[in-house]
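Standup notes
- DV: blocked on the single-chain target, sequence here:
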Amino acid sequence: MIKITNQPQNNNPIVKLLLALGGIITFGLTLFLGAVALFFILGFVVLVSSILAIRFWWIKRNISEIKEQYKTKNEKPSRKTSKILEGEFHEVDKDKN
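- DV (later): unblocked, structure below
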């Protein structure tokens, strides 16, 4: 006969064994489910961070391409790339000599 009292102890060895076995199973199950949840959370964090890293890389690449296009479009030709020869000239009369 089991008496329900405010005392947490019970003198029956079978009940103590069953409580200990239940506690061990509960503790093991809690550890296992906690590890599974941790792996799911870590996997999700790795997935989201890799997606964000790829997205930022792609945006950075597009911005640099747009910068290059804008730079080449609005850039004045420099002396090295220009094939225009600039200078002054004066007409010289042959008769004056």
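- Follow-up: The longest helix spans residues 13-74.
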